[in-house]
From TrEMBL:
This is TonB-dependent receptor. One of its GO terms (molecular function) is siderophore uptake transmembrane transporter activity. The keyword Transmembrane applies. The lineage of its organism: Bacteria, Pseudomonadati, Bacteroidota, Flavobacteriia, Flavobacteriales. GO terms for biological process: siderophore transmembrane transport. InterPro entries: Beta-barrel_TonB_sf, CarboxyPept-like_regulatory, OMP_b-brl_3, Plug_dom, Plug_dom_sf, TonB-dep_rcpt-like. PROSITE patterns: TONB_DEPENDENT_REC_3. It is found in: Cell outer membrane. It comes from Flavobacterium collinsii. Keywords: Cell outer membrane, Membrane, Signal, Transmembrane, Transmembrane beta strand, Transport. GO terms for cellular component: cell outer membrane.
Length: 783
């Protein structure tokens, strides 16, 4: 920390050295009809040489610029209002402009009023921003439902998140790591808690280096409206998908208090069908396996916090998030064995009752200091997460052919807990008119404990009993410099991360320590081809560290014939990522094509191996390299004010190479993903949204995954002057959400079909207190 303070003092000194003669430009933005001031309006100041500065008006509608003398033009933009332009004027002294009067934008369409609103998906140079408030399909759902509607993102039926078909993605919450992003924990977060999702495919040095595919940042809601505001959401579904959510906030000049309290109950019906064919000594035997599962989750969560505006330049923010999940499974397994003559000679029935109460807590404290110098800022964050879960499995097994009266009873218990501390401090200092430096330090400290034991027929099974200790300490620092020269922008950065990771068991059967330090350079180049067209070239080096469950060599015993275990010797993999992106907007049409290439070393993949008993064990291992290159296009077209069409398409080829235990695992394939969305809006009548997502078949190092597709549809109607909304959703419209996989090896053949959830319907009602729907969606760009 001493070094950080010294650096800050050093860069504070630049302020006096780089100061130029600047004048103050002030003004106010008001509604042309009501004459009320408009907060959070975007105000753009453009000089005669095309340099731009952007600010947002404060709660009183006031905006302030500090700029050198010259000729300028002012443009004012705000959702639901017509843009306004203040023509060229000269700034040679401190100047106060006349109030800018904004007129509400109303377009006539068959005698139906349409109010312009912010696009659901914003395409920016460094990220894609998905504004959840506009999304009909995710109302009443979870974070997984939202992510499945985000361009380039997919969440499979097991809750695994992938970006551009690559599951090496880091998911953050409010810009910080969270254990809620692991093991399908995102299904616990209600969509009502989420404001927006940011997708960053090639992050700068300011972001953590973890995640070879990039970063997805989930931003939780925080109030931006003055006074008392709130909303109540009630939802029901079939199969059961019920939710109750209350959002209440209060804001004054000194404080901003916000809260979100929710409850969800979900029933999920899943099934798995598997066919195995094994060859031993030229004798072929088969196994037909049938699994039927019912899961119910009851989830309680609360998110409360507040901002305290110490003064105009200092803000303190504190928040607390609590999540309790009661997760229950009941699964019936049937194993039907056939001999070489294909006659059934054995049937085993197995029943599992799984119960897992889980508690997650996160305390967060943020401090932000701004300065007289524009865009100069110092931010410090502290977060403490602590969670625990208690996994209990009760398994009964009986042989019914030939019949055996004995029933074996298996009980397993895994008590897990973790304490995580996250500390971060960032400093931004502009230099001159068009340059700035950024630097920061960060520490991520995690201590995770697992106590696992197994009892079979009331006898402790020592070989399946153990305690694990996992400690992960990451320390990082970064520095980056950015500047603009006419139409050319660049940002160059360097990040260093020190990793100190240890996993060990109390029996001393293994103890593994990983210590390494790495450098992660980044480069972003942007050229403004025209006012509405930009070309960006970017590069970053990334890392994928194995997760705890990928290192843990112990597995649950739900299905002894198909086990997944970790590998404590697994090493991190490194990716060099290159991307060329064009961002163009022409009136009603916008397009964002990208070409990308990723080269990964020490690539790790899950390998399936058969035991002598014809059981199968899946474990992650390090292979050699992976090369992935593709083309992605995101486009939006609005032919009319009532209709918006969007299409996201991603095609990529990949080549994976490596050898493990003398077996060569080389594969080369290509596949594609697409997501079509259409939004139809007839205000005061009805709004509708439809999405269709398709993923082509994909050949991995061992398994072939067949093509998948799914469609969702939603309708929304507003009542009582937009204070109440009623939404009806149908997810998995064609009941097509199925994962089919085939593994064809010399001595065995596997074929599986997994259905995680059939078609389901959800009805959601939202009532807003003290604000309308459009007012609730007016959020400042800085949030």
């Amino acid at each position: 920390m001493k070094q950080l303070f010294l650096l800050i003092i050093l860069f504070l000194g630049f302020e006096g050295m780089t100061q130029t003669n600047e004048f103050t430009l002030k003004g106010k933005v008001v509604d042309s009809k009501t004459k009320q001031s408009l907060p959070y309006v975007t105000v753009i100041l453009q000089s005669s040489n095309q340099d731009k500065r952007t600010v947002s008006s404060d709660k009183n509608g006031m905006y302030v610029f500090k700029s050198p003398p010259g000729n300028y033009q002012l443009r004012i933009e705000f959702m639901s209002y017509k843009p306004s332009v203040v023509n060229t004027f000269s700034l040679q002294k401190d100047l106060v402009l006349k109030d800018v009067l904004l007129e509400e934008e109303i377009n006539q369409l068959n005698e139906v009023n349409v109010v312009a609103e912010k696009s659901a998906v914003e395409l920016k140079l460094d990220k894609k921003v998905f504004n959840v408030g506009k999304d009909i399909l995710s109302k009443g759902g979870s974070a997984n439902d939202i992510l499945n509607n985000v361009p380039s993102v997919n969440v499979d039926i097991a809750g695994v998140v992938s970006l551009r078909g690559n599951n090496g993605v880091t998911v953050l919450i409010n810009g910080k790591p969270s254990m809620l992003t692991a093991n399908n924990g995102l299904s616990q977060i209600s969509a009502a808690n989420i404001e927006k999702v940011e997708v960053i495919t090639n992050p700068s040095a300011a972001y953590e280096a973890q995640g070879s595919a990039g970063i997805i940042n989930i931003v939780l809601k925080k109030n931006s409206m003055q006074g008392f505001n709130g909303s109540l959401q009630v939802g029901v579904g079939n199969p059961a998908n019920h939710n109750l959510n209350a959002n209440v906030s209060y804001k004054t000049e000194k404080v901003n208090l916000f809260s979100n309290i929710g409850y969800r109950y979900i029933d999920v019906y899943a099934s798995n069908r598997q066919f195995q064919q094994n060859t031993n000594n030229n004798v072929v035997t088969t196994l037909h396996q049938y699994d039927d599962n019912k899961r119910n989750n009851s989830i309680y969560n609360i998110y409360i916090g507040g901002d305290y505006y110490i003064n105009a330049k200092n803000t303190l923010t504190g928040s607390y998030y609590h999540d309790r999940n009661n997760n229950n499974y009941k699964t019936a397994y049937t194993y039907r064995y056939s001999n070489a003559a294909q006659t059934t000679d054995s049937i085993i029935n197995r029943f599992e009752n799984y119960k897992e109460p889980k508690n997650y807590n996160a305390l967060e404290l943020n401090y932000v200091k701004t300065f007289d110098k524009k865009d100069k800022k110092w931010t410090t964050s502290l977060q403490y997460d602590f969670w625990n879960d208690d996994e209990n499995q009760y398994i009964d097994q009986q042989k019914t052919l030939p019949y055996e009266p004995e029933v074996s009873n298996l009980y397993t218990r895994d008590i897990e807990s973790s304490n995580d501390i996250f500390i971060k401090s960032d400093f931004v200092n502009p230099i001159g008119e068009n340059s700035k430096i950024e630097m920061g330090i960060r520490s991520d400290l995690r201590a995770l404990r697992s106590d696992y034991y197994t009892i079979l027929d009331e006898v402790l099974q020592d070989q399946f009993t153990n305690k694990l200790k996992y400690d992960e300490n990451l320390y990082s620092a970064y520095f980056q410099f950015g500047s603009k020269i006419k139409k050319f922008n660049y940002l160059v950065g360097l990040r260093t991360e020190l990793s100190d990771i240890k996993i060990a068991d109390t029996k001393n059967t293994f103890s593994n320590t990983k210590n390494y330090i790495n450098l992660f350079p980044t480069l972003h180049l942007v050229y403004n081809l025209t006012e509405k067209t930009d070309l960006q070239l970017s590069y970053s080096k990334r890392i994928n560290r194995p997760r705890f469950w990928q290192l843990n060599p112990f597995s649950g015993l739900s299905d002894l014939r198909n086990l997944t275990v970790g590998n404590p010797d697994l090493n991190p993999m490194f990716t060099n990522s290159f991307e060329l992106t064009l961002l163009a907007k022409r009136g009603k049409f916008s397009i964002n094509p990208s070409v990308y290439y990723q080269h990964t070393t020490n690539f790790f993949e899950y390998i399936l191996q058969r035991t002598a008993e014809n059981y199968f064990v899946t474990t992650p291992v390090n292979l050699d390299t992976e090369d992935r290159y593709g083309v992605e296009v995101s486009s939006t077209y609005s032919p009319a004010n009532w209709l918006r069409l969007s299409l996201d398409f991603n095609y990529y080829k990949f080549k994976q190479q490596g050898t493990y235990e003398t077996v060569v695992y080389d594969v080369e394939d290509q596949t594609w993903l697409s997501n079509f969305r259409s939004v139809v809006k007839f205000p005061k009548i009805i709004s509708g949204e439809f999405s269709f997502k398709y993923r082509g078949k994909n050949q991995g190092v061992q398994s072939l995954t067949e093509a998948q597709y799914t469609a969702n549809i939603g309708l929304n109607r507003d009542f009582f002057n937009d204070k109440m909304s009623v939404t009806l959703n149908v997810n998995n419209l064609f009941n097509s959400q199925i994962t089919k996989q085939v593994v064809n090896a010399p001595l065995y053949y596997l074929e599986s079909e997994f259905r995680a959830q059939g078609r389901y319907i959800r009805l959601t009602v939202i009532y807003r207190f003290n604000r309308k729907k459009n007012e609730a969606d007016r959020l400042p760009d800085s949030m």
